[in-house]
Amino acid sequence: MRRALDLQGEAWNEVVRGLPGAHVLQSWEWAQAKKANGWEACPLVWEGDGGVPEAAALVLKRPLRAGGINFGVNVLYAPRGPLLDWANEGLRRKVLDDLQAFARAEGAIMIKMDPEVQLGVGVPGAEDAQEDAVGARVSEELMQRGWRYSDGQVQFKNTVWVNVDAPDEVLLGRMKQKTRYNLRLAERKGVVIRSGGEADLADVYRMYAETSVRDGFVIRGEGYYRQVWERFLRAGMAEVLLAAVGDETVAGLILFHFGGRAWYLYGMSRNAHREAMPNYLLQWEAMRLARAKGCTVYDLWGAPDRFEESDSMWGVYRFKEGLGGRVIRTLGAWDFASRPWFYSLYTRTLPRLLALMRRLGKARTRQEMLA
């Protein structure tokens, strides 16, 4: 392993694109977006014969601070990394050994990772569900090494992928009948989809805030999202799509694309004209745009942990399933505690801190909506 400080910008992105599981959260643009929030990028590369990269991890590092006090320790996180062929047992052992050693060398409390190692596809128990032997082996190995399934899951553990590498008629044919009906209904109701840009981002954030208040999830302040969205738009790695009824913009999404895959990371809508089903037509155009950008997979970003109606993600999942997608189940986030005492304290304190931040975040967003 080497700390690849010489690989930045597009040079780093080329390494990432060439590895299995290339992900937008491992891109240099994501590292720069997180830098604005105090995270330092630590790009790591494992090279094989002839210096060809065979594994990589964009590890983010941030000092642990609270109340203006710097505790002199760090936390490390590899979002959707490391990237490698997880079926390669020797390489897998090497990468995990090195990550554990890196965490100790950096004085970190812990290192968190959530690589897209698949445990299976399809809803568990369904006739078409399939389990992945590699994922099962990796889970077992992590436990043997002392890694712990994290109480702090940052990204969604499960998601829904739509294969967009097909003609329109095939994509439509994979959808649920009700989804196709709602898509056509949106067209009949006069919903129009247009491309947006940086000039629309203030309105996009306003819709996002309205969505968060209505659906009960917490978002950050506008400045955070603006700098992320602007960075990826300027890099040519994101597109804004907006749905309008008449002169009123009623829904939108930001489509990220990188390494042959697209992601629905941010979606937003207003309460107005929901009966016109704008989100159905919006997702249809996003699928077609992803295909036009050379992507084969459209990741709808999020599915339930438990595939039961009681799960808070159930309604969203049913909408995504209707688009013709298939459930992808992954390992989720795992932590290696390089300083166990600090880690124990951190994991006891963090949930209370996050709960407080969520309450404050909801209150702040509501206040912004009323301003």
UniProtKB/TrEMBL annotation:
One Gene Ontology molecular-function label: aminoacyltransferase activity
Cross-referenced InterPro entries: Acyl_CoA_acyltransferase, FEMABX, PG_Glycine_Bridge_Synth
GO process terms (BP): cell wall organization; peptidoglycan biosynthetic process; regulation of cell shape
Keyword field: Acyltransferase, Cell shape, Cell wall biogenesis/degradation, Peptidoglycan synthesis, Transferase
Alphabetical list of SUPFAM superfamilies matching this protein: Acyl-CoA N-acyltransferases (Nat)
Membership in a protein family: Belongs to the FemABX family.
UniProt-recorded name of the protein: Methicillin resistance protein
Native organism taxonomy: Bacteria, Bacillati, Chloroflexota, Anaerolineae, Anaerolineales
